[in-house]
Amino acid sequence: MTQSACFEDLAVGQTASLGKTITEADILLYSAVSTDTNPVHINEEAARASLFGERIAHGMLSAGLISAVLGTRLPGPGTIYMGQTLRFRAPVKIGATVVATVEVTALNAEKRRATLKTTCTVGEEVVIDGEALVQVPARG
Amino acid sequence: MTQSACFEDLAVGQTASLGKTITEADILLYSAVSTDTNPVHINEEAARASLFGERIAHGMLSAGLISAVLGTRLPGPGTIYMGQTLRFRAPVKIGATVVATVEVTALNAEKRRATLKTTCTVGEEVVIDGEALVQVPARG
Amino acid sequence: MTQSACFEDLAVGQTASLGKTITEADILLYSAVSTDTNPVHINEEAARASLFGERIAHGMLSAGLISAVLGTRLPGPGTIYMGQTLRFRAPVKIGATVVATVEVTALNAEKRRATLKTTCTVGEEVVIDGEALVQVPARG
Amino acid sequence: MTQSACFEDLAVGQTASLGKTITEADILLYSAVSTDTNPVHINEEAARASLFGERIAHGMLSAGLISAVLGTRLPGPGTIYMGQTLRFRAPVKIGATVVATVEVTALNAEKRRATLKTTCTVGEEVVIDGEALVQVPARG
Hints:
The structure is a homotetramer.
Chain A: E1 15-21, H1 24-34, H2 39-42, H3 44-48, H4 59-72, E2 80-88, E3 97-108, E4 113-122, E5 125-135
Antiparallel strand pairs in A: 1-3, 2-5, 3-4, 4-5
């Protein structure tokens, strides 16, 4: 039903992206799933008094989009997520559209592993960067 | 209203934890928020045919509990999340209770930054490990 | 579009009920809306070690069904909710079907106010009882 | 893992608060959980024609914040919620930030029960007041 990722189809330089607008509903649902009820995410008055000046999205909420690209587009279904590094470089405001992009930067054929550069942007601004390590099944 | 974290209150060796049972509802809401609709999370038939043999939780869903400990307990509200490394070491089944634990391992007083060892466990098994880097406001 | 409640239609002894099965999804969504992430609701291991022996629903979650009967059935849309007393008499387990019942016990025609006995049950067991005070518009 | 409330740590006059901004998403999720689909909460046209002039939050939604303070801060995890009285004194508009505050007003050492004054405010305005009765475990 779903086409699965194959290590043999990967090449250094391949990229894939997806974008999502972060709404009030995302903040609320993510606070439930993560149990992260930090006031900067759910209390407008406290957030206004904070460094950020308004409510912002959970950093890990945006990071989840990286996982979504890896698991649904490149490499795609069947990918085993082994590791991720994340640098949170700028806050994401509610209503912002976050685009997550991954790019294959290295391949280890023996272990069928791929390293990907992972970047989340809002407009021109990088809000998260880092690197993912995945394992991808061999064909058939 | 909310007590904020202060760099001066941190000491190497401090730890904090929180736990959450990962339910069907978490999988559904997290797939909505992250757009990660990988079949291994939401399609029981495809998951049964996969390496995992059943549906599993998104790795990044469990990682969100680390962010929750950092933002609500140690260091707590006011913490600025700068970076996170994650190694996904074992899958999390639906119904499992994930406990996220953070431990202060290094402090940089000049930059008011703390490094914390971050671990997610299910029972005795480590499912995620890694390291967080945060910045914490100075007192008053 | 919606028929509104009228004080003149109320009589002592009238009753109305509604029931709802409390699922995992209710617990998760209510924890988001209320910010109540008490472990007894969301952490199966902690709940097992508690007095209750398993996760239970938030008491206020069940109490919300009382408000629903008042606002949608008796007296119905247009009702102004003025006050409520609640005694939490027994825990509600996940999967239980809670039935909220209201019964008009007193009417104050001058102020167009009604007092209602409010009860939530699971099977034969009363889990919440108390009293509601509402104001209801006069006809036309 | 979670520090539990102890009756011995309570003293008359202690207070705790938490705040939350009530968003569209809260209204939707709370209407789902409570089944309270009263038009004044979910139908902008009907709400405009009502006494309130616009959609308002469910009173019991704001009341849930009281339960959250009791269960997560004061007294905290382990608290058994025995009763609550609520007076709904003013409507809460969508977008308002509700702050729930509890204050210990009486202690019954023999039964390990505490009475707390409970207040929800929006800015300077009291929107709900009332009283909570809880039971708190003795230490160890």
